[in-house]
Amino acid sequence: MDGYQLLGTLYLRLGRPDEAIAALEKILEVNPESTQARMGLTRCYMAKGEFETALGLAETVIAGAPTDIAAYYAASDALVELGRYNEAVERLRRLEEVRPDARQARYEIGRVYLMLGRIEQARREIRSALELWPRIRSAHFNLALIAEQRGDQALAVEEYGREIELFPDNFEALTNLGILHMQRGELDAGIAAFERLLAVSPDDPTSNYLLARALHEAGRDLARALELARKANRLEPGNARTLALVNELARRTSATTSSSPAPESASARSRPPDRPGPGAGTP
CATH code for 163-283? Predict the structure, then answer.
């Protein structure tokens, strides 16, 4: 049976949930009470977007194993996807009761409140979670989002900084921190954040675009900015904002050298990309 479990896990990682389901169901044919197989099936149906089925499987596990932490989190995730936020909070509160060692539960409650727009409740729950367990991925990121929604940009910068200190590879935190610095006119800090973002994801079109845009706005190293913008365009062909930036940079660099390539066409003005929103960064 371990072979089918391993096969199911492998198929799911490969993005083939139907084949994963077939493998895991073979385990249940022999052992209908297998919690491991049911949890594997829960993940498969979540991946397929069949959230009611996933919820039913998770609830079945909870009924048979009332202290199974993973099952409560899976049920909560499915309820969130179904828009049943209050029920998701109830499941997580119940988890705190039956498993006081489930340190992530309170943070997850805060994330649900953030999705609901209940900002103060979200802030209190996330702060409380950090008192119990100071190292929760994306907790400070979400506190930064809350600070921005409350108009406290200075606190948001602090919270993004704390998130990056704990988790230097947090793409969303680096992105938002850089954009916030640029909005505040803190060009050096913004460029530094985007340099770190590029080091984390050198082949991501957004990281290349953001650093190119920051250099363009600061009027610095325009040749490198043009190179980064062109790389972003190669990585994500046809993106209007990137083509517009290439166009602008090509015009600026052509003013100082006659050997610059002709600008690439674009019909839209260059603009910053959408920023990660509430609840981003699943821990």
Answer: 1.25.40.10
